[in-house]
């Protein structure tokens, strides 16, 4: 009977996963804005039947959980506005053109594609937008220079995820930090060296994999000339921001348009609060865009880009977060995850063991839900409470552990998604790649076979956490015994 009750309490997660993956029938799922509310209402029903939690109390719990992440909503609105300004004023195009100016060969198209998409994703805060903008260029460049298609497509896939994991304006970076109660700026400084080492390692591996390929070279302009009108029409419908960036790449923008990106990274490292970093980045892009001619006027910039960014954030990601955060609150209220927490604590004998299991829970949740944001807001509160309730340490060390949890949620969400064939990430990449490069029949596994960035990031994070070798990475070391110890009588996550 107890086992049935445990399964019933977890059934809202199963419902959420089914709605996302196949709720419409025919293998097609609902958007999170439908799946989230339905799962929340069902969770309230289960909470009433199993724990006697009244509907009014369930609603109050859901609302209280949302209150805890209100600051994240403001950061997200600013982040979307800055992403739009960087995409449309020429910051992203200047970055791409700078890398393509010398021409690429089959030996360099994949490693350079990795770096370009990594930098562009940091600048724009979107892996999907970065992939949509860069896939037409790099896949056709690869075609012209006779490179290895799967190596190239995996390189730009991994690079596009880089900024989603560490970008100041990435929604997953912002949300995963907010869920764990840490500052985005602190999080970027904390994992910065590790992230760059992962990128450098991946670059070297791609360079080695491409060493035996032809030396024939081509330019970005040649690649753009090969892009069909059907591809451009597809991007105009699906990703107009990516099309605008592509057109700027074709037409050219002044090289000084990379300055806003460099400026924002510099002030972030200097410790300027997140919202101020974003605001300064927006105005830097506007000021230089006025000089470059990519911004028509201040009113047009504010209404067409900044206001649109605020509206875009409010129309999906913020609303989605509210529903899923409420869902997580109700699930925690009825202690649905307590058996899972008990198992993790039973298997953990040291702080590093518990933290490693938190990483495993994150990637397992991502595989189950097939949506990185759903994983972040559902599993995030569980791993936070496991740490706060069961590890004794100073407040400073507790904050460091929450930083690691935020890194788990984001890295296992973004890079883990690229290693899960049924994930919405992979489905999106297959759709975009197939549309912009129709001469090849892309399959989900094509994006995993050479996804060196995903394997390096996920694998290194698990190994460094478990072994304690993270202390060899500057700023990335995690508190350990005797400074941080597991409580003798552990409390399980509520």
TrEMBL record:
Pfam families listed in its UniProt record: Na_H_antiporter
GO CC term (a single one): plasma membrane
InterPro entries in the record: Na/H_Antiport_NhaC-like_C, NhaC_Na-H+_Antiporter
GO molecular function, one term: antiporter activity
Coiled-coil residue spans: none
Start and end residues of each Na+/H+ antiporter NhaC-like C-terminal domain: 46-207, 256-457
Transmembrane segments: 32-50, 71-94, 114-141, 193-213, 253-270, 275-293, 313-331, 422-440, 452-469
Keyword match Cell membrane: yes
Main localisation: membrane
Record's subcellular location: Cell membrane
Membrane topology: Multi-pass membrane protein
Family membership: Belongs to the NhaC Na(+)/H(+) (TC 2.A.35) antiporter family.
Listed PANTHER family: MALATE-2H(+)/NA(+)-LACTATE ANTIPORTER, NA+_H+ ANTIPORTER
UniProt protein name: Malate-2H(+)/Na(+)-lactate antiporter
Highest classification ranks of the organism: Bacteria, Bacillati, Bacillota, Tissierellia, Tissierellales
Gene it is expressed from: mleN_3
């Amino acid at each position: 009977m107890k086992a049935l009750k445990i399964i019933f309490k977890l059934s809202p997660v199963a419902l959420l996963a089914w709605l996302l993956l196949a709720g419409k029938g025919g293998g097609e799922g609902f958007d999170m804005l439908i799946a989230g509310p339905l799962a929340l209402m069902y969770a309230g029903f289960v909470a009433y039947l199993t724990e006697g939690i009244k509907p009014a109390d369930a609603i109050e719990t859901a609302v209280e959980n949302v209150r805890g992440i209100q600051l994240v909503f403001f950061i997200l609105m600013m982040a979307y506005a800055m992403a739009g300004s960087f995409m449309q004023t020429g910051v992203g195009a200047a970055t791409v053109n700078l890398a393509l100016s010398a021409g690429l060969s089959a030996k360099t198209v994949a490693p350079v594609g990795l770096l370009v998409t990594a930098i562009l994703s940091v600048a724009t805060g979107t892996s999907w937008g970065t992939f949509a903008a860069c896939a037409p260029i790099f896949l056709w460049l690869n075609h012209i220079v006779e490179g290895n298609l799967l190596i190239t497509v995996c390189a730009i896939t991994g690079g596009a995820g880089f900024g989603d994991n560490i970008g100041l304006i990435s929604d997953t970076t912002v949300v995963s930090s907010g869920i764990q109660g840490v500052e985005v700026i602190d999080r970027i400084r904390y994992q910065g060296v590790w992230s760059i080492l992962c990128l450098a390692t991946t670059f070297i591996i791609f360079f080695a994999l491409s060493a035996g390929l032809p030396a024939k070279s081509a330019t970005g302009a040649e690649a753009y000339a090969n892009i069909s009108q059907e591809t451009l029409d597809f991007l105009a419908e699906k990703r107009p921001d990516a099309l605008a960036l592509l057109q700027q790449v074709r037409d050219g923008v002044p090289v000084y348009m990379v300055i806003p990106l460099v400026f924002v990274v510099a002030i972030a490292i200097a410790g300027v609060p997140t919202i101020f970093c974003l605001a300064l980045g927006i105005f830097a892009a506007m000021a230089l865009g006025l000089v470059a001619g990519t911004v028509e006027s201040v009113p047009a910039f504010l209404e067409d880009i900044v206001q649109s960014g605020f509206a875009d954030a409010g129309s999906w990601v913020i609303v989605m977060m509210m529903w899923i955060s409420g869902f997580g609150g109700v699930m925690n209220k009825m202690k649905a995850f307590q058996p899972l927490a008990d198992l993790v604590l039973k298997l953990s004998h040291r702080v590093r063991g518990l933290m490693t299991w938190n990483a495993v829970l994150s990637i397992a949740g991502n595989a189950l839900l097939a949506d990185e944001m759903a994983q972040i807001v559902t599993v995030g509160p569980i791993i936070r409470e496991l740490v706060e309730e069961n590890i004794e340490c100073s407040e400073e060390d507790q904050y460091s552990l929450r930083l690691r949890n935020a890194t788990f949620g984001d890295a296992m969400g973004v890079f883990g998604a690229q290693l899960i064939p049924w994930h919405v990430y992979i489905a999106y990449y297959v759709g975009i790649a197939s549309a912009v490069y129709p001469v090849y029949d892309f399959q989900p596994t094509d994006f995993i076979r050479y996804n060196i960035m995903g394997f390096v990031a996920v694998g290194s994070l698990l190994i460094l956490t478990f072994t304690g070798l993270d202390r060899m990475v500057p700023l990335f070391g995690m508190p350990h015994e005797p400074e941080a110890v597991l409580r003798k009588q552990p409390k399980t996550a509520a």
